[in-house]
Amino acid sequence: MKFLHFYFIITFFIFQGCSTQQADPQANTSHIETAETTSDTSTKPVTATDKNTEAFDNEFETEFAESEKTEVSDPLSGYNRSMTSFNDAFFTYALNPVSKAYAAIIPQPLRLGLSNFIHNIKYPVRLVNNLLQLKFQNISDETERFIVNSTVGLAGFMDPATHYMNIPVHDEDFGQTLGHYGAGSGFHLVLPFLGPSNARDTLGLFPDMYLSPLVNLKSYDQYRIPSNFAESIAVYAVEVTNKNSLRLGEYESLKKDALDLYPFLKDIYEQKRASEIAE
Amino acid sequence: MLKKILVILLLSGLSAHAVEEANIKKVMDAKVKKVLGILKNTKLSQKQKEHKSITVMDKIFDYRTMSQISMGKRWKTLTAKEKNQFSRTFEKKLKYSYVDKLRLYNNQRVITKELKKLKSNRISLEYRIIGKDKNYKVVYLFYKKRKSNQWYIYDVRLVGVSIIQTYRKQFSEFLKTKSFKQLLKSL
Question: Is 0.85 exceeded by the ipTM?
Answer without folding.
Answer: no
